[in-house]
Amino acid sequence: MLLEPAPRTVRGARDLISVALQYGNAFGRGFQAAAIKPADYFGNDDELYLMEDMATGEMRVSVLWEWLHKGACFTADDPAGGVRAGDALTPALFDRIMEEEYGKLLRAGNRDVHDDSKRTTLPIAREIVERCVRNAVKAPWCIDLLNLNLNNHDLGRARERIEAYFAALERDGTRLTANPDLA
Description:
The protein is mainly alpha-helical. The chain has six helices and two strands.
C-alpha cells in the first residue's frame, strides 16, 4: 500500500499522538467519548475541545502506524524539532515526540488530564499507543487493547495483556477481545 499524497508535519504527528493518548486515557477511565484537544492548546480558550470517540482515536493510531512503517516523509520543516521537509518519521523521532507529548499531559492541569489518571490509565494508554504504532504487524483495532484493559489500573498487567494480544495476532491472526476482569 502507498501513502496518500498529503501534508505531513511534525505538528500533525504531535497532535495525533496527544489526542490518541488522551482518548486512550479517557476510555480507560470509562468514558466512551471525551472532550479533547492537543496538549499544546491547553489553556487557549480560542481553541475548542472536540468530542473525540473510538473512531477518531483509532484513526490517529492508524495514521501514525502508516507514517512510521511506510517511511512517510514530512512535507514541511520543523526547525525547533530539527526536522526538515523530506525527513521520515523514524522510530527514534516517534519516541522523542511521544516522550515530549506524554510529558505535556503529565504536566497538564486537572481540567485537561485528570490528576488521578496520570499514574493509572494514562501510562496504560501510552503503552497501548506505543505498541500499536511500533509493532510490525498492524493491529486491526486499537480498541481491542483498550477493552482488554478496561477497569485495569496496573501497568504490569496491561503489558502482559498487550503482549498476549500481539502474540495471538502474530501467531494466527486471532484478536483477543474479552476483558479477563469482566469474564
